[in-house]
Amino acid sequence: MYKIFINDKPLILTKSEEIPARFQELEKINHPESVSIMDWVRKIEGLSHKGCWVVDAHPKLIFEEFRTHFIAIEAGGGLVFNDKDQILLIKRLGKWDLPKGKIDPGESQEQGAKREVEEECGINKLSIQKDLGKSFHTYKIQGHRFLKITYWFLMKTEFNGNLVPQEEENITDARWFDWQNLNPEELDTYQSIREVLLDLKSVKK
Known about the structure:
Layout: E1 2-6, E2 9-14, E3 27-30, H1 37-45, E4 52-55, H2 59-67, E5 71-81, E6 86-92, E7 95-97, E8 100-102, H3 109-121, E9 126-141, E10 144-157, E11 171-178, H4 191-201
Parallel strand pairs: 1-9, 2-4, 3-4, 5-10
Antiparallel strand pairs: 1-2, 5-8, 6-7, 6-11, 9-10
């Protein structure tokens, strides 16, 4: 399954007729070979559209076609836990978010993710525990479409100092949240970030 967020609205590519309940009210598309995937992208970019899910035997092929219409940007980010089973969240542009940012030339995905977490939160002593996969979201700048591919990693830290939000990146707060009591459905965040948290909730109790 591919979950792509266009203006923070989901475009789901899957070969299964069964998807999470939170997506079942979205418009469903069968036989997408008869319709250009970019026609649906343009519909989702409209203000009134809520997103859709596409059922096809070969969702990877549809995704590869989708990618050809975008300029790809790679980023890395972390879901960081301390020894109290608290997760690190930042507030960026008024919404709760996860620390992440663009991978620099010559960096590995892991190196970029760790550096971005350190820079955005003033934290150190990070260790990567697990690769959590990728998320996808799109945006437009001056008529060009971009696809941001973010590589996520589960991280742990022994850091117990004060968190320092990176103001030049529009981060106004960095805070630890109790993981067991955190409900991503109620968190004031972006839908793409909510999905990353919900995916982790499904495997990390």
